[in-house]
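ok so I'm stuck.
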Amino acid sequence: MADKKPDLSSAYALRGPEDNNRLYADWAETYDATFAEDMGYLMPGHVAELYKEHGGAGPVLDIGAGTGLVAERLEALGVTPVDATDLSQEMLDVAAAKGVYRDLFAGDVTDRLPRDDDSFAGAVSAGTFTTGHVGPEGLAEVIRLVRPGGLCVLAVNERHWQAEDFAAAFEALGDRIEGLTLPERPYYAHGKGEHAADMGKLAVFRVV
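replied:
not stuck anymore, here's the structure
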C-alpha cells in the first residue's frame, strides 16, 4: 500500500486474507480518524444499540472487531464483557489500547476460531460481512460460538447481501436460528463518493 493510502474503496476490493492483513496493517493507526470520523461511520452504534435493545448480554464476541468501535458503544450501554476477534493483529493492537475488551485474539471467521462451542451469550459485527470481506460462509462459525438462546446482531452491506444471496443462506440455516429480523440502517452520517448512501441490513436473530 506504499503508493496509495488505504480507504473504503481499497477495502471493498480485497481478495482474501493476505490482502486484508496487508491493507489493515497499513491502516490500523489512522483508521479511526481517516475513516470512522471522516465518513461519520454509524454502523457500530447501530449494532450496539440493537444488541442492547433486544436484551443482549455479555459475554459477547465482536467479530471483525477492528479498532474496537462496537465495543466502545457496547460499554457505554452497559453491555460487558466483550471479546474481540479480527484477521488483523495490527487493528487488534489499536483496539487493545482502548481497554474495552476482556480478551482479543486473531482469527478467521470463515475457518474455525480458537474458542469452544457455546462460548458466548451473543455475537455482534459491524464491518465484516461486506464486499471484499466475509460472505455467508462465516455465519455457521458465528452460530457455533453462541450458546442456545444467545443473540446475534450482524450488519451486512446491502449490495453484498444481494450479490452473495444472504437471504438463501439464512433460509438454509433452518432450525439453527429463530426470530430473524432485518432492519435497515445507513452506514454513514456524511459519507463521500459512491459509498455515501450505503445501507446495511442488520440480521438480528437468536441461536437455537
